[in-house]
Each structure stands twice: as structure tokens, then as C-alpha cells.
Amino acid sequence: MLQFIVDILKDAGVLVSIFTILGNIAQRKNVNDIIVSAIRTYLGFILLFSSAGLMISPSLNHFSHIFMMAFHVKGVVPNNEVVIVEAMQQLGSTYTSAITLGLIGAMLFNILLAKITPLKYVVLSGHHVFFMVSCLTIIGLLHHYSIYTSAIIATLITGVWCIISPAMLVRYCRQIKDCDDLRKSGDFSIGQFGSTSYFLAGWLGEKLGNKMYDAEEIKIPRSIGFLQNKQVSTFVLMLLFFAISTLIAGVANVQQYIDVKGAHVNIILYLLKQAGLFSAGVFVLTCGVSMFIEELIPAFKGFSEKIIQKSIPAIEIYSLFPYSSNAVFIGFVCCTLSGFITMTALPFLGYPVMVPSLLFTFASGGGAGIIGNATGGLRGAVIGSIACGVISIAGSAIIYQPIYDAGVHSPTTYSTTDFTLLGISLHGILSFIH
């Protein structure tokens, strides 16, 4: 019986499903709703693991090999969603259980801090809380702390960051136009952990931008409007990355690599399939994360509404995208381009090549574009998203080695600025202590 309980606590999907059940019971939901919520939570975890293991990771591995053939360097594609699954698989079930408990602990700590401090922000981007706990736990392991000690350190830091990061951005969020629906209950802020890049975009927009020229007044050509769809843009740009790397590596060399791997298909079909696997995998993975977060967040939201007076929601950055579509597209393009330019400089500084993650450049680049446009118009959107691309790729390059040294041996790492900033800072502090 005891072993069964231990096995249950080691399974992240089951553990979060149980917590979701308890949260729904506390809110007196009916049995049908509780069952649906629990199953959706568990299926979300199944999609998370399956998409990364069966679709995204193989595509990234193939791309890494072709990229290395082309440029004679090892290419790393930073992606928060993928690296956490790689860490779970490589560091084991105890790590998985610890960071799952850390997710719950950090969100509870966030609620407690919002209750007792003047910063009344409650982060509703549970997946970013999950990613932050995972990142900081890995840093703790690097410095030879036990898994649970590392997770406790990560949990406490993440809980504190849950009230600090939205507080940094609330004044910029007040300047975003045409999103009155989000203000029905008062102020809102951003709860996605790219807050340092959004803050930089807002600050640069104020200093260097011009609010008279709003990006939303620009009409994007219909001929490239399809790139506003996240799945389509991910597929097209990933296909472009594969194609360019293949041409530089040599079509014959890549075809030989395909044959050795046992695929024996035409190189064009191969490239289409790999880009499709990556894009579809990211889509399925995102759906999986959304499924379990959609069920977990209401449980916390119900608790927070009962406990905290005048709480301020810190929402997903994607919630802002429908209100600033031009700024999102401009930010996506500028962040992607600046990320690739930064990528080319990294080997000369002694760092591995970081290939910008398209999921990141769409989310964080688009978010930086929105904030930059709010404070500095079109110029602010451009400058802010360019800065976002530079500091994000540079940060991923710096944090890659500590994550690798801790035992996560994969051609990916954390991509968003808050993870790299807090991870690098914790690494520096623990190095100094020891």
C-alpha cells in the first residue's frame, strides 16, 4: 500500500489530477464536473509527454544533425516546453514528482504573498510557474543539493517572482489600447515569465519610441497574412530553417543521412515531414499544457478569490494578442531576425549556437511588440522586440551549459528571459556560497 502511494506521488499527471479534484471539491462542484476536470488534467499531461517524445524531440534531433553538418557547429533550439520534458525523462521520476509538488507549492506561496503583501498579483500562467520551478531545481541539482531541497529553493523563489514580475509590468499594461474586456474587474498584468524582456521593451519604447505612430494603424499585406497563424508560421519558418541548412550542408549529404537513418524518402518529403512534425508537435504540446492548466488554474482562482481581497490577475500574454495583431506580427518578425543575428555572434564569444525557437519568438517577441507599441508606437514595437530577441538568445546560450552539466543532455534549453535571468543568478549565488 505504501509503495502504491509513493508511485502515485511520483506520477506528475496523477498528482496534479488529484489536486485538481480536491480544488473542485472545495468549490463544491458537482460530480460530473469533477470527473471531467480530473480526466482532462491527466490527458493534458499525456499529450505533453507524447508530443515532445514522439514529434518534437525527433524533429529537433534531425535538425540539430543537419545544422551541424551545414555549419560545423552544434545547434541548440531553446524551447521551455521541450526542455522540461527532456529533464523529466533524464532526471527521473523523483525529479518529476518534486517539481510537480513545487508547481503546487509555488502557486500556494504566490497566493500567500498576495494576501500578506501590498503586491496583490496572482499568476494564472501555471505552465510558466511549472517551467520556472523545473529550471531552478536543475540549478540546485548542479550544486549537489538533493532533489527535494533544490525543489524547495525553486518553489520559494518562483513564488516570490509571481508577485514581482507582474508588478514590473502593470503600468505598461495600463497603456495598451482597445482591451477594455480585460479591465472589467480592474487592473491586470502579465503572468508569463518573459517579464524582463517585456519590461525592457516598455522602457525602450518610452525612451526611444513615438506613440503618435501606432502599429495597429498599419495594414499588413494580405499576401503574407497567413503568417499570423501560429501553427502555419511555425511550419513555414521551420521548413525554411531545414531547407537553408540542407542547401548549405549539401543535398547529397543530407540525402545520405536520411538513407542511413532508414527513411529512404525523397529529401523534399523528408523536410516537409520534419517541419510538420515540429509544428504539429508544438501545437499538440501546447494543447496538452492548456488542458491541465485550464483545469488547475480555476481551482487556484477560486481559492484566491476567497482569500485575497482586490487580487489582480496576471494573465497569459496570448490573452493580449487579439487586441494588438499588428504589434504581435511586427514583434514576431523583428524578434526572430534579431535572434538569428545574435545566433551568428555566439560562437565567436565561446558559446554554443542557439537557433531561435519559433514558439518563443511568437510568444515573447509578440508580447514585446505589444508592450513596445503601447509605450512607443511602431518604433517602440520594433526596438523592443529586437532587444527581446538579443537578450533571450544570449541568455539561453549562457544557461545552456549549467543545464547540460546538471544532467539534461539535449539539444534544447530554456528560452525565455526570466528563466535564464533567475537561473543564471541562482547559479552565481550558489557558486559563491560553495
Structural account:
The chain is globular. It is 73% helix and 3% strand. By secondary structure, the protein is an all-alpha fold. The chain has helices spanning 2-10, 12-26, 31-71, 80-91, 93-116, 126-142, 147-173, 195-208, 230-249, 251-260, 267-307, 325-345, 358-405, 417-433, and strands spanning 75-76, 121-123, 189-190, 312-315, 353-354. The mean pLDDT is 85. A three-stranded parallel beta sheet has the order 2-4-3.
First and last CA, distance: 41 Å
Beta strand count:
5
**Element-level helix/strand string:** HHHEHHEHHEHHHHEHEHH
Q: How many DSSP H or I helices?
A: 14
The residue ranges in which pLDDT falls below 50 over 5 or more consecutive positions are none
Strand content: under 5%
Strand order of the largest sheet: 2-4-3
Mean pLDDT: 85
Q: Largest sheet, if any?
A: 3 strands, parallel
- What class do helices, strands and sheet pairing give? mainly alpha
- Large-scale geometry: globular
- Measured as a percent range, the helix fraction is over 70%
Radius of gyration: 21 Å
Brief summary:
The protein is 73% helix and 3% strand. The chain has 434 residues and is an all-alpha fold.
